[in-house]
Amino acid sequence: MPEVTYLEALRRGMWEELERDDRVFILGEDIGVYGGAFKVTEGFRDHFGAARIIDTPISEVAIIGAAAGAAHMGLRPVAEMQFMDFISCAYDILTNYVATARYRAGLSTPMVVRGPSGGYVRGGPFHSQIPEAAFFHTPGLKLVCPATARDAKGLIKAAIRDEDPVIYFEHKFLYRRVKEDLPDDEEIITPIGKAMVRREGQDLTIVTWSAMVWKSLAAAERIAQEDGASVEVLDLRTLLPMDEEAILSSLRKTNKVLIVHEDTRTGGIAGEIAARINERAFEWLDGPVLRVTAHDTPLPYAPTLEDFVLPQEEDIVVAARRLLSY
Amino acid sequence: MPEVTYLEALRRGMWEELERDDRVFILGEDIGVYGGAFKVTEGFRDHFGAARIIDTPISEVAIIGAAAGAAHMGLRPVAEMQFMDFISCAYDILTNYVATARYRAGLSTPMVVRGPSGGYVRGGPFHSQIPEAAFFHTPGLKLVCPATARDAKGLIKAAIRDEDPVIYFEHKFLYRRVKEDLPDDEEIITPIGKAMVRREGQDLTIVTWSAMVWKSLAAAERIAQEDGASVEVLDLRTLLPMDEEAILSSLRKTNKVLIVHEDTRTGGIAGEIAARINERAFEWLDGPVLRVTAHDTPLPYAPTLEDFVLPQEEDIVVAARRLLSY
Amino acid sequence: MKAQVVQVDPLPAGLSRDQILEVYYYLVLTRSLEERLVKLYRQGKVVGGLYRSLGQEGESVASAYALQPGDILSPLIRNLGSILVRGAQPIDVLRQYMAKGTSPTVGREMNVHFNDLKLGYLGQISHLGDMIPVMAGIALSFKLRGERRVGMAYIGDGGTSTGAFHEGISFAAAQLVPLVIIVEHNGWAYSTPTSQQTAVTSMVSKAKAYGLPAVTVDGNDVLAVYEAAKSAVALARDGGGGTMVEVVTCRGGGHAEHDDRRYQPQEDIEQCAENDPIERFTERVLRASWTNEGELSALRDRVHSELDEAAARCESEAPPDPDSALTDVLAMPPRSESLWFRSSRA
Amino acid sequence: MKAQVVQVDPLPAGLSRDQILEVYYYLVLTRSLEERLVKLYRQGKVVGGLYRSLGQEGESVASAYALQPGDILSPLIRNLGSILVRGAQPIDVLRQYMAKGTSPTVGREMNVHFNDLKLGYLGQISHLGDMIPVMAGIALSFKLRGERRVGMAYIGDGGTSTGAFHEGISFAAAQLVPLVIIVEHNGWAYSTPTSQQTAVTSMVSKAKAYGLPAVTVDGNDVLAVYEAAKSAVALARDGGGGTMVEVVTCRGGGHAEHDDRRYQPQEDIEQCAENDPIERFTERVLRASWTNEGELSALRDRVHSELDEAAARCESEAPPDPDSALTDVLAMPPRSESLWFRSSRA
Ligand SMILES: Cc1ncc(C[n+]2csc(CCOP(=O)(O)OP(=O)(O)O)c2C)c(N)n1
Ligand SMILES: Cc1ncc(C[n+]2csc(CCOP(=O)(O)OP(=O)(O)O)c2C)c(N)n1
Ligand SMILES: [Mg+2]
Ligand SMILES: [Mg+2]
């Protein structure tokens, strides 16, 4: 079985859906002849034609608005943001039009908005964002964030087939760094709304997603080696709707939860998870729900600064140890 | 001393700052001749002239971007959104440009974005929003949300004098419903970043802000009457930066916290407060941190639906009683 | 009685006599329905505000009348006439305004914010400009599927200042999709005159930025609007791409019923009153003898009895069930849970 | 040696000989600085990507050269020449690219994303279009204070598709603020040709939508760009409002150094190579005998020694202190706390 990168898995997932369902099409900036800034759609235009792989103007509002209109008419658009940082330009139409269309007016809007997000790549403040929190607060959207090559493929396929608008956050740091054996003959679909335990443990649960899954696994391994404690790592995979049951059942086993996310701290998604645990399982807690997150700053460019602002494996180890000491 | 409404207090606060400091000017849609959709700037244009009370095109990005540029040059713009629901159109420039200007480039951007927000007025999904959470997650912004006429005046004056960009959420339900005696001769400034105890209590702390302060006070009164329990009501007044000390010291007294906000639940600001309490004062908790919030839907138009989706006094009573029972 | 020779003009714009009567019917229906709403509003039976298309019924009805089954338009607040032409029922409009549980949005949205894609209209959201990109996408789907269908989107002079308008129309033009843009130039955006909205005096100059063909017509001349819209629609249907049609009109009332129009010059108000599209149309069809007063009054009677019935029925209907608020946030799950502090009371 | 009569053309566009030499200096400085950066990039000393203005140095330098002290411009990625003219120091550009602690943004931002409002330039953010409303606000402040200052903003052919561009330029035109917009029409937006970006072939047609005067010039003719910019700036300074100046140019390289330009037709690439603004300018000034090869090579030597020194100095400088990342998120408090799991280690 061939080793497939996260990026290649995403690519194949879209390719398969384009082959399977002729309602599916992709639109975005430089995705056609050029194959996209990260070559995610390399070769798509030659194979599927310019009518299904559409190069657009630099107009994020038009890209997402047009995707919504086409989705109302029964098509299955996949809108690419060249960098997810630019989705902010379409914040209004995504949160006010797309997210509310079914509720307000009974409209069906099956569409995917996807693109590269995340830091650790020296991209500076505007090519490193993982703009998950603002949309996490928007009823009517689904949010997915694969950490593995298998889920990169499985979640894009599930997102394209979903009846609801889905924002798919791919992590550009993982594009070529994460590999996995993926059988060509197997149809891989990752169900939206289901978390997955990446490492079993008894003493502490780390709730995390996207690139932080890998840092958490490394931290868990170190703690096993150095402290002999066993840490469970739960990969949420979907942020909205959130797999609350998976979080609670892991908590009932370990009685301690550490949430790790890459995005900034104040108003980040960890807060919601902490609140839900409080409401649903307060009596199961042997210690406070703790968070490891980025510092509350724009993401600076210089390596020394970016490394300082973003969460690192060592931070997770420090926080886990404090929680284990309860 | 004359009774002054929340709206009139806000109006006077801006008027005084325009008189005091000729760097201050206001721009927005229909604020000039018409005096604004809610008449907040009634009479301003006649007194201060069209150069300082500027009617703009329907261009929220331009309004906020232009305010930022003028602020860089030393002016003190106050940008009005006709309804705060429309601030979403300027989400990109506010979060990526305005909020990061000082951090990225050492630019000073003293500006205020203000406008009517909030529900309970049968405004439907796009004239009722209180879009606080998305900006709460943005480092570089300050967020204020007055509940009283005194703070409506004191916070707008403080916001205009602040060196940082401030978003000022006024609550349209309170505009004419809340009144207070405000001496004309007293200069009223409400410090940004300071919460205020609106009602002393021993058994439970309600952390809240804006219109929910009044529902919380009514609920606290009912609980005092019917249950003989004493509930403390803490009005945050500023959401960013948050007065964590005020929350923690009240908690250390009552050992129980209920957070009440009008905005939708998932990803709402209550989550952050719950997380901080966990981190800083877990051992002080005699019960879970609970939340009363709106349901996770767009805000519907019909009175029966709006009343169902939004938090009501009775909800606060029910939640407080559950927490008191711990 | 003195005998006289009746001089009948040739029928205009390829319209039949029946069609002319049908246009008249929709003009009267639009205005009468709004007059009902004003009554209900004054009686406090309308939830929230009331927005009228007084003086703009002509361009709304005439532009929509140029469409065919399968086409889709997106109205704005002043395009009640457009959706009535597409088949929206007056009683549903009343239900929307009165927030009834029987309304097309089950009480979730207001006034003309509702849709029927089969009949061919898509309700807008309040955020001005956003419907242009959405309609560009609907027109794109027509193009991608090779369907001979057309989209039509309305935008006000003020709405053309939004970034969403720009991105949507620019995208539509670059993709050559069949989308006709009707710019309603009524001289005002709420209290803001066009002169403060933009440095251009004519909206068609905006079309130049997108390489779109554009025409300006007297928006209160029903037949002129119909002809302009009809050829724009034909061009789009034949794969020629979109057109901007600027209808120069005037707002017969305030921005909404609560607006006292203090900012509007008196002559502006008077000129508009003297330039009523329905009166002009009536006068024209009678002068040309395409119909007669008897037929017209019969149509007016029909409208009023239809509205009497609709209003009576609507008023007796119930508001939506509170907890219906929890359905259809998503397709899956179809229903959200009620928050615990509620359930514990239910 | 054969004697010959030297024929000296009259000096162009009110420029003095010294100014012509100064323009040449900035042209050479811009190109040479970027060539240094390419070397450093290949040596892995540049953090992140490298974007060049190759082929567009002429329009950048010439447009900025039309400004005066007190004026403010906002550059894009291809306007290195513009900020050098405004007084930005080459070493600061190197520091930005190498993310040094000594850089104007203390390592927080990249390349030309930095400002000096005293010298008169405001660094952009990546989100295209956003600087137009911001510059409209800066120009508005000039107007409100009655200062005779001018703003200048650059936008690419692709950037004109953004809603922010539309709202900003429309607002600036409606308010008649002194803002000159330079549209750099280089035919490409990354891999997207103008033909897919918009249905218009010339950017000046976009100005019509805003009632702005507009002119198109050969962007690789330094003196033509200077003259066009100069009169636009003069008009703005005299209260006549903004102008759009379309500079028709070409991108001498890929979108960035990593871009293999596979999508670009070969003749397109060759034509651009043959249309080098610096070569054309050099040829012109020599032919007119405004200067001579000796003076020019002296200037080139000066540039290279300045850059040798700057590069040597910059390379030896340190990166920013990690915890300097926590200052200046807000004016008050001036420093944010380090998160507990860090402090506990410090
Ligand atoms: C993005 C946005 N900003 C502000 C508003 C508030 N608003 C509603 S209608 C209106 C005026 C619209 O004027 P115009 O587009 O000319 O339409 P008209 O009312 O004249 O038919 C404004 C400012 C809005 N709905 N959307
Ligand atoms: C809002 C936004 N969307 C997408 C991008 C990604 N992007 C960066 S440069 C670029 C192409 C710009 O083309 P143009 O404006 O013509 O400038 P040029 O590169 O030709 O100088 C794109 C799409 C961006 N920076 N901002
Ligand atoms: Mg108008
Ligand atoms: Mg270009």
Strand line-up across the major sheet of chain A: 3-2-4-5-7-6-12
Estimate the strand proportion of chain C: 5-15%
Number of helices of chain C: 13
Which two protein chains have the largest interface (Cβ within 8 Å of the partner's Cβ), and how many residues from each? A-B, 45 and 45 residues
Calculate the terminal CA-CA distance of chain C, rounded to whole Å. Answer: 76 Å
Structural class, from helix and strand content of chain A?
Answer: alpha/beta
Pattern of helices and strands of chain A = EHEHEHEHHEHEHEEEEHEEHEHEHH
What is the terminal-to-terminal distance of chain A? 45 Å
Descriptive terms for the model:
heterotetramer, A: 326 residues, alpha/beta, seven-stranded mixed beta sheet, five-stranded mixed beta sheet, 12 helices, 14 strands, 37% helix, globular, C: 346 residues, five-stranded parallel beta sheet, two-stranded antiparallel ribbon, 13 helices, 7 strands, 42% helix, binds thiamine diphosphate, binds magnesium ion
3D architecture notes:
The complex is a heterotetramer, with 2 copies of chain A (326 residues) and 2 copies of chain C (346 residues). Chain A starts with a strand and ends with a helix. The mean pLDDT of chain A is 97. In chain A, the strands form 3 sheets. In chain A, strands 3-2-4-5-7-6-12 form a 7-stranded mixed beta sheet, sandwiched between helices. Chain A has a 5-stranded mixed beta sheet with strand order 9-11-10-13-14, with helices on both faces. The longest helix of chain A has 16 residues, at 212-227. Chain A is an alpha/beta fold and 326 residues long. In chain A, 37% of the residues lie in helices and 20% in strands. In chain A, strand 13, helix 10 (269-281) and strand 14 (290-294) form a beta-alpha-beta unit. Chain A contains 12 helices and 14 strands. By secondary structure, chain C is an alpha/beta fold. Chain C contains 13 helices and 7 strands. In chain C, the strands form 2 sheets. In chain C, strands 1-2-3-7-6 form a 5-stranded parallel beta sheet, with helices on both faces. In chain C, helix 1 (17-42) crosses helix 2 (57-65), helix 1 (17-42) packs across helix 12 (293-315) and helix 2 runs parallel beside helix 9. Chain C starts with 16 loop residues before the first helix and ends with a helix. Chain A binds chain B through residues 85, 88-89, 91-92, 95-96, 99-100, 103-104, 125-126, 133-134, 136-140, 240, 242, 264, 266-275, 278-279, 282, 287-291, 296-298, 300, and chain B through 85, 88-89, 91-92, 95-96, 99-100, 103-104, 125-126, 133-134, 136-140, 240, 242, 264, 266-275, 278-279, 282, 287-291, 296-298, 300. One thiamine diphosphate sits between chains C (78, 126-128, 156-159, 162, 184, 186, 188-190, 251, 255) and B (29, 58, 60, 82, 86, 89).
